Amino acid sequence: MMLPLRSLLSALAVSAFAAAPLHAQTVSSPQPQQPAITVTGEAHKSVAPDIAQIEAGVSNVAKTARSAAEANNMAMGKVLLELKNANLDAKDIQTSRLSIQPQYASSNRPGPTEINGYLASNMVTVQVRDTARVASLIDTLVQAGANEIRGISFRVADPSKVLDDVRAEAVADARRKAEIYARAAGVTLGAPLVITEDTQPGPMPMRKMVMAQSASAAIAPGEETLGVTVLVSWAIKAP
């Protein structure tokens, strides 16, 4: 038997109303976040660098670009030959900059500035895998004709082993701090929930400008400091 339209609509409304609570029950409420103590741990270690980098080369000025380039190539050839004679590996000698730039005469008069010469420059970067040789190599460069020593930097060739020790110390530092907070709050420290690392493994370079006229360079490699910071969240055990 067919129901009247009004009765059919009333039945549908009652069914929808009855089903609504069942639908609401399927929505799960957010779970409370697990109690935790979050701290940072830090550790640093200073080590002697075992590799050095020297940037050096030849710069000269001539009336024409061609004559400047030719003179520069000849002078740089002598420098490269001496580096080769110093038993450096070819892979440790790399050209870092090669340029020829016009040089302008200083003038207070209006109008185009006159070119009075050209500056040719050729720089190489030398990796020195024995830091004790740095001073003697600088002397070799200067005596071979290098008139620019741009800088010297020192670093640890493979910092991974040192950083692994520092990482363990940083986590231990985080646990020490977390235990202090746990005792103060009257709770017990549980297992770590999250460990996030922020490393600063880069070297702290020592740069020293060396005069080309110096025949005896005094070099101090110093130390490189490697550091790690960790952010650790420790669970709080239920009583």
Total DSSP helices: 4
Beta content: 25-35%
CATH class of the domain at 51-105 and 113-155: Alpha Beta
Ranges where pLDDT stays below 50 over 5 or more residues in a row are 1-32, 201-215
CATH superfamily of the domain at 51-105 and 113-155: Protein of unknown function (DUF541), domain 2
Q: Can you give the mean pLDDT?
A: 81
Kindly report how far apart the N and C termini lie.
Answer: 66 Å
Largest sheet, described in full?
A: 4 strands, antiparallel
Question: What structural class should be given to the helix and strand makeup?
Answer: alpha+beta
Task: Give me the Rg, rounded.
Answer: 35 Å
Helix content: 25-40%
Question: Which features would summarize this protein structure in a list?
Answer:
Alpha-Beta Plaits; 4 helices; 239 residues; 35% strand; four-stranded antiparallel sheet; 33% helix
Walk me through the structure.
This protein is an alpha+beta fold and 239 residues long. Among the domains are: 36-47 and 160-202 and 227-236; 51-105 and 113-155, Alpha-Beta Plaits (2-Layer Sandwich), CATH 3.30.70.2970. Helices cover 33% and strands 35% of the residues. It contains 4 helices and 7 strands, in the order H-E-E-H-E-E-H-E-H-E-E. The protein has helices spanning 5-24, 65-85, 134-144, 160-185, and strands at residues 36-47, 51-62, 93-104, 115-128, 148-155, 189-200, 224-236. Helix 2 packs antiparallel against helix 3 (134-144). It is elongated, with a radius of gyration of 35 Å. Residues 1-24 form the signal peptide.
